Amino acid sequence: MSDQVKPVPIFDCHHLGTNVSLHYLADLFTEEIINCQKQDNHYLQIIVGKGLHSKDNEPVLIYRVRRILNDFVNSGFIKNYVDNTTNGYLIIYF
Q1: Among 9, 12, 54, 90, which has the minimal tally of Cβ within 10 Å of its Cβ?
Q2: Measured in whole angstroms, how far is the alpha carbon of residue 81 from the centre of its chain?
Q3: Residue 40 in contact with residue 4, Cβ under 8 Å?
Q4: What is the pTM of this model?
Q5: Measured between alpha carbons, how far apart are the two ends of the chain, in Å?
Q6: How many Cα neighbours within 13 Å face the side chain of 58?
Q7: What CA–CA distance (Å, rounded) separates 11 from 51?
Q8: Could you tell me if 16 and 25 are in contact, meaning their C-beta atoms sit under 8 angstroms apart?
Q9: pLDDT tens for residues 7-56?
Q10: Are β-strands 89-93 and 43-47 bridged in parallel, bridged antiparallel, or unpaired?
Q11: C-alpha span between 80 and 83 (Å, rounded)
Q12: Taking CA 19 as the corner, what is the angle to CA 71 and CA 22, rounded to the nearest 5 degrees?
């Protein structure tokens, strides 16, 4: 029997743009985290992009994403996250 490594589940939100509300984004993350947990995953990669095509060369959703993830950590919904926005993504641990 071989040990198979599960691929990291990915949620790509960098295409959503700046008009998406904080609550809608939080609901999307919540749904995706619950789906990952049901599939016995313990982490999720969220792609926010590097901001290469944005006005200030910064991911447009990153402040909202960080706020949501900080709220999730504070409430105990997730354990923690790693912010790797210089490479265009974050990893959530739950």
Answers
A1: 12
A2: 9
A3: no
A4: 0.87
A5: 27
A6: 6
A7: 17
A8: yes
A9: 889 999 988 877 889 999 999 999 999 999 999 999 999 999 888 888 77
A10: antiparallel
A11: 10
A12: 15
